[in-house]
Amino acid sequence: MLSFFSTITSMCANFILIVRTSRELGHPLFALACILKPLYDSSYTHILWGFDYFYHVENKDFIHMQAVASLTEEDHRSEVLAGGLSDYIIAEYAKSSNRVGNLPTARPESQYGLPSTPFPDILSALLGRAPIMYLALFAIVNPSVFSVTTFAILQQYSANLQLSLKFLLNGIRQFRHECQQITSLYDSLKMPAALSDGYLAYPPRSGSKSEKVQSEVSRGMSFDVREVCFSYPNGTSALTNVSLSIKSGQLVAIVGTNGSGKSTLMKLLTRMVEPTSGTILVDGNNMADYRLSDFRQATASFMQDHGIFPLSFLENICMGNVDAVGCDDDEVMDAVRKGGAEDILTGLAEGQDTVLGGPNDYRFGAFSMNEDDDDDDDKKPNPLLARWEGLPQAVLTSGGEKQRIIAARTFMRFNSGKVSFVAVDEASSAIDAAGEMQLFDNLIKERKAKTLVIVTHRFGPVTRQADLILCMKDGTLCESGRHDELLALGGEYAKLYTIQAGAFTTVDVDGDSNA
Ligand SMILES: Nc1ncnc2c1ncn2[C@@H]1O[C@H](COP(=O)(O)OP(=O)(O)OP(=O)(O)O)[C@@H](O)[C@H]1O
After folding, report:
1. How far is the CA of 73 from the centre of ligand 1 (A)?
2. From the CB of 261, is ligand 1 less than 6 Å away?
3. pTM for the whole structure
4. Is the pLDDT assigned to residue 175 strictly greater than 50?
């Protein structure tokens, strides 16, 4: 900032001196000659402005590099953290970047501004000499007016002015860039503080626990939630004094009305956030004492905010278990089948190598749809439009297809053999009823040696089979137990169940109701 302002001061001083001297000499145009070069240099890099144009990127390594980089953005943050994918992302970025090599990767607009012939550079150099040429010319014509000293002083001033004007124009660009960076830095400061890492290995090494505890752990993760409260950074209190216990290998359903705290409870169980107060024990130890990377490896989460990565279908599935990338096709196909994504794969033009969501992200068009015809008022379509529309189309997925692919990714994660806790939060809401039932069936079948916790709004096979139902209301755990027990209790669960069951009750012409 200081150098920015000192450049402005020095530029103004030089400019005033040059204007005054050139007016005294009767040559005001000299001042103009001094600023020609910086003005020309700063303008020719933007010559694309005002033209109709579009660009698209075809280099697969570049697209992959950008796609991998985009996984660090907010949209994918929770899944990348939950899946412990950071190391894989860094390694993949380095690989793609090496393959891209020295190819220029700046935005096409700025690359277009780079001169393809030496003439702009020659013109720039000539304009740089304009002040001295101007002086030389008039010194020859009027030798009495120009002393050698005047000549040397003016040459020095003009060089200084050109230099400071160039710094100033670059500085303005840099200043705008830094302002943007500062804004994003402040945005990132609003993010919740990072979780502290623990020191205990998960699962605990054999010999470190009693035999009974060891055998419990091998059946799945257990949780003991003790008087946990949680408030979001904006002050919203989402959970108040929640205490519950989930045993190893249990199938648990979390139910409740919107905003009752189900997802927040799931975020706590998957350690995406820390309790504001209270403790959560996992297999008898404070959850925060486990090494985060171990805990993440032992957890498979399938959440409503998870999305499709802008990568190939295959990589989208393999992100569930990055160690399997490029390994066993059968494993991938098995996960695809269990997630119900086979039909999606069959429909993809390039099979499992089809990039999902791309390549639309790597193209940009700046042209009007119509061209003005000067002869009459008719407008004809811009010829660029047909070429733009002829580019390969992005492979988009519907909400249900997206969830099936993410489900397949979750099943792929099971293949790591390290998962002992599966967290599913309303992640199948867009899948049709038969598909959802099949998916839950597959999850329940695959839950051997895993604790499976499912947040659901639909009362059905999951709630009937659940070993434990946690019914949430207004941020508290209002009831817990099995389906029959809770129905018999006649409280919140029974009320929600009856409302949903009522939707499937028909009233016949005699007024009898039949489920
Ligand atoms: N990121 C957030 N920032 C602030 N408040 C939040 C945030 N997420 C949730 N809340 C608030 O916390 C409370 C509990 O939300 P939560 O998402 O846990 O409920 P839920 O039972 O999962 O709801 P739904 O059934 O609609 O998914 C709500 O009042 C909600 O508005």
Report:
1. 22
2. yes
3. 0.69
4. yes
Ligand 1: residue whose CA is nearest its atom 29: 259
Asked if 440 and 461 touch (Cβ cutoff 8 Å), the reply is yes
Looking at residue 17, its pLDDT comes to 75
Over the stretch 18-72, which tens digit does the pLDDT of each residue have?
A: 777 777 767 777 777 777 777 777 666 555 656 777 777 878 888 888 888 888 8
Distance of CA 510 to the CA centre of its chain: 57
* Nearest residue (CA) to ligand 1, atom 24: 258
Instruction: Locate the ligand 1 atom nearest the alpha carbon of residue 475 and give its number.
Output: 14
Probe target for ligand 1 pocket from 260, 425, 471, with the most ligand atoms within 8 Å of CB: 260
Cis peptide before 359 (omega within 30 of 0): yes
State the DSSP H helix or E strand holding residue 160, giving kind and residue range, or none if neither. Answer: helix 148-189
Q: Which atom of ligand 1 is nearest to the CA of 264?
A: 18
pLDDT confidence band for 504 (50 / 70 / 90): low
C-alpha 185/C-alpha 188 separation (Å) is: 5
For atom 13 of ligand 1, the residue with the nearest CA is 238
Query: Which two three-digit tokens encode residue 430?
Result: 């867009």
97: which residues sit within 8 A by CB, 6+ positions away?
A: 65
- Does residue 262 line the site of ligand 1, with CB under 6 A? yes
What secondary structure, in 3-state letters, does 270-334 show? Answer: CCCCCCCEEEEEECCEEHHHECHHHHHHCEEEEECCCCCCCCEHHHHHHCCCHHHCCCCHHHHHH
The CA 276 to ligand 1 mean position distance, Å, reads 15
* Over residues 450-460, mean pLDDT: 90
Average pLDDT over the chain reads: 80
CA 219 to chain CA mean position, Å: 35
